[in-house]
Amino acid sequence: MIESDPPLLQHYEARFNHPVEVPPALECDERQNEVVMEECQLPLIDLNGLRLKCQDERERLACSTAICRASSEWGFFQVVNHGISPRLLQNMRREQVKLFQTPFENKATCGLLNNSYRWGTPTATCPNQFSWSEAFHIPLTKISEEACYGEFISLREVMKEFAAAMSELARLLAGVLAENLGHKKGELEDICDESTCFLRLNRYPACPISPEMFGLVPHTDSDFLTILCQDQVGGLQLMKDSKWVAVKPNQDALIVNIGDLFQAWSNDVYKSVEHKVMAKRTTERYSIAYFLCPSYDSLIGSCTEPSIYRKFTFGEYRTKVQEDVKKIGYKVGLPRFLV
């Protein structure tokens, strides 16, 4: 364990009365000690067809069709030519690594980034609900506040630029998906609110008891859509055709996945797919996720009838998810809102 790591092993052992014998470091390739997973290539979509000012309507239609098809068949896809510069992505990664390399005590006690630091899973009631990870969960409304950054002054400007770029991309994609359902251009954008959208900076430390440990437990996202920027380490897996498949990293692409709210809003046309992250034995992993959310009082109703789900607000949905996690240790999600 290094000074910046949270005490995940000690917490895991104490919480579950589950002593763990850490095997000695191995010289062989880490992959020899991991469960072999089928690897998938997510649908790859070139967004030039949407972003070019002098748009060819056929290109735009082909791009939009690919986005909607992937959202229905996979619930996940990856995008290139997305408009976020490699320079910005590199700068954000550099600042993120610097932040997580701070001693654990500083991260846990000094109130960084709106006191948003979290690690492990305090609500876990059994080992398979425990996440071997740490994160900063930052509302967009706090990203501009100088007081949130402490000594990490250089992080502020980079994060402001990064959040703005991710927000623009998320709204572009959400607009395409909404129009495909017959909604007016900008209708979904109008209910998405900066006060509820957020960035999550993730680090998955090397885990001595991998491969049995989740970096992030299986879940679906409770938003409209998520955009993920990840490194090349791998570990993300999703449920496809009733089995877990590993997502092959693509250094040029961002990953997009549909959230619960879009599944409900689309009356199950788009799929919010269960996914997880598996910890690595000797390698740490970094990622950043942007979550597109509506205001808490926004009413989520299906776009067609008969509706599969009853109408609910985002605030009601979020409260029910939190209650379930607290009471039973995991999220139930959309099945709570079936008609």
Automatic annotation (TrEMBL):
EC number(s) from the headed UniProt entry: 1.14.11.13
GO BP: any one term: gibberellin metabolic process
Pfam family, one: 2OG-FeII_Oxy
Entry keyword set: Dioxygenase, Iron, Metal-binding, Oxidoreductase
Keyword Metal-binding tagged: yes
Metal-binding is among the record's keywords: yes
GO MF entry, a single one: metal ion binding
SUPFAM superfamilies in the record: Clavaminate synthase-like (SSF51197)
Catalytic activity: gibberellin A1 + 2-oxoglutarate + O2 = gibberellin A8 + succinate + CO2
Boundaries of every Fe2OG dioxygenase domain copy: 193-294
Family from the record: Belongs to the iron/ascorbate-dependent oxidoreductase family. GA2OX subfamily.
Protein name: gibberellin 2beta-dioxygenase
